[in-house]
Amino acid sequence: MSAVVHHGGAGATAEGLRAGKPTIICPTYINDQLFWGRRIFELGVGPKPIPQKKLTAEALSLAIRDAVADAGMRGRAEELGVKIRAEWGCTEPSR
């Protein structure tokens, strides 16, 4: 897999990032989806989100091409994936 495409819910976003792959979000105008779409773009681990009302085959193919071809985006996604996989969340022992 070279990139992930999804609606931008918290769970899907987390799993795509855990995999260390660039993420393309197509939100449906639900608040967390809009937030994660913006955040992915701000972190440089995915292109600008494509709202589902504006989703076309051409827009999606361009976003996928950008996500796969941009070495910086791929590298940042891989680095973030390593960091996320190192976290154990609530199973981490208290310090």
How would you briefly describe this protein structure?
This protein is mainly alpha-helical and 95 residues long.
Describe the model.
- The chain has a single domain (4-87), classed as Glycogen Phosphorylase B (Rossmann fold).
- Helices cover 54% and strands 6% of the residues.
- The chain contains 4 helices and 2 strands; from the N terminus they run E-H-E-H-H-H.
- Helix 1 (10-18) links the parallel strand 1 (4-6) and strand 2 (23-25).
- The relative contact order is 0.19.
- The model has no long low-confidence stretch (mean pLDDT 93).
Query: In what range is the share of β-strand residues?
Result: 5-15%
Number of helices: 4
User: What can be said about the biggest beta sheet?
Assistant: 2 strands, parallel
Taken from the alpha-carbon principal axes, the silhouette is globular
- Overall average residue pLDDT: 93
User: Total domains, how many?
Assistant: 1
| Element string (H = helix, E = strand) | EHEHHH
Would you give the CATH topology? Rossmann fold
Q: What is the helix content?
A: 40-55%
